Amino acid sequence: MRTRDLGITIGQLPTGPLNAITDVAGVRVGHATLIDGDGALVVGRGPVRTGVTVVLPHEGDIGSEPVFAGAHTLNGNGELTGLEWVRESGMLTTPIGLTNTHSVGVVRDALVAASVRSAPPGRPRWSLPVVGETWDGFLNDIDGQHVTAEHAFAALLGASDGPVPEGSVGAGTGTKAFGFKAGIGTSSRRVPDDGGGYIVGVLVQANHGARSRLSIDGVPVGRELTDVLRPDLPDVADGGSIIVVVASDAPLLPHQCRRLAHRASLGIARGGGGGENSSGDMVIAFATGNRGLRPEEAEDVPPAREVTMLSDQHIDALFWAAIEATEEAVVNSLVAARTTTGRDGNTFHALPHDRLLEVMAGYGRGPGQGPTG
Fold it and tell me: By CB distance 3.0 to 4.6 Å, which of 68, 237, 357, 359 could disulfide with 224?
């Protein structure tokens, strides 16, 4: 179930065919989901509610054919490895991995190993993988570090360019947002012809936000759903983090990718996220509109390269695409998620669809009533 399946439309721009990050040609997404055990927490044994999600920027070898990229940090209480080189070089040279806070290292190392396996014989690889995290310790035995390299390999092997599973899957298995169960969400926007006819796709790992601040299409849903069960956990349960991956097929240069990443943070804000002190809110944006780039260490790199750049006078539509797609991706993560009980019986309830529709209708939104834009 997705937001638009309920008749709720967010924003003004049209979506891509799948309304997913995989609408950007070549982008693939894979998940590995870990669910095991119930009851009291025993560190190292469970219960386990976690996983790995990977985003591959194109169908080729990203180590041999990087893409332009940029990044933005709304609040830095989190981790997205490899960003210093992305900022310095303006290029993304690895798949993007997502997992829980205490498994970043193993997923990073697994991506290095996968890169080494794909290298030409006799040529050492150089790899600084991009891996992000959010903390899923309310539901998961996060200190037990149950994610292994094999899970990351499985996510890579299973990556597909089709519809993207959302909610309580992969790196979103144990996450929550706005006091509800959340997880992985995705959305896309197709920029009209006057902006070049490009696609902007977004994928989020949502684990952020206070219930009272949840807003959907401008409606203060969180304030209206105070009767929905909340977990009996400390106030910090309303904090948390979000990682956003933005992709586009537009011919963007690195500084334009960075600008696109900035706008994704406005999509976070439109939904009620504020980049609080305890939150790690990080965005990476990449563009596939200049294929055929070569890594700087390659032997056949020419002394000069020709690239194409979208005129900044036509970039506003892409900005709005990133804003709208990020906002909707977060809501999709909530709508798709299932009520989940994890360690010590901690439970995060799914956002109830019937109650959501009642609230939206009360504000003139929902099926047949149109978005605010």
Answer: 359
Q: Does pLDDT of 235 surpass 50?
A: no
Residue ranges with strand state E in the chain: 28-36, 48-56, 67-76, 91-92, 96-100, 130-134, 176-177, 180-181, 184-190, 199-207, 241-248, 280-287, 340-341, 347-348
What is d(CA 153, CA 169) in angstroms, rounded to the nearest whole number? Answer: 16
Task: Specify the CATH class of 3-297+306-362 in words.
Answer: alpha beta
CB of 226 closer than 8 Å to CB of 256:
no
Quick one: DSSP state of residue 164?
P
pLDDT for res 40: 97
Is the Cβ–Cβ distance between 184 and 243 less than 8 Å?
no
- What is the pairing mode between strands 28-36 and 48-56? antiparallel
- The two three-digit tokens of residue 20, written as one number: 């997913």
**Residue 180: strand pairing partners:** 177
Give the bridge partners for 219, in sequence order: 216
Q: What is the DSSP string of 58-120?
A: SSS-TTTS-EEEEEEEEEESS-BTTHHHHHHH-EE-S-EEEEEGGGHHHHHHHHHHHHHHHSP
Sequence ranges of the domains in the chain: 3-297+306-362
- Decide if 103 is catalytic: no
List 23, 141, 238, 281, catalytic entry: 281
Calculate helix-pair angle for 316-336, 254-270, nearest 10 degrees. Answer: 50
Which DSSP symbol is given to 45? T
Q: Of the candidates 36, 213, 214, which has an alpha carbon nearest to the alpha carbon of residue 139?
A: 36
CA-to-CA distance for 137 and 330, rounded, in angstroms? 20
Q: Is the pLDDT of residue 169 over 90?
A: yes
Least Cα distance to 69 among 293, 256, 199 occurs for 256
Is 279 tagged catalytic? Answer: yes
pLDDT for 299 equals: 63
95: pLDDT strictly greater than 60 = yes
Terminal-residue alpha carbon distance, the chain: 22
Q: What is the C-alpha to C-alpha distance for residues 265 and 273, in angstroms, rounded to an integer?
A: 9
Has 241 been annotated as catalytic? yes
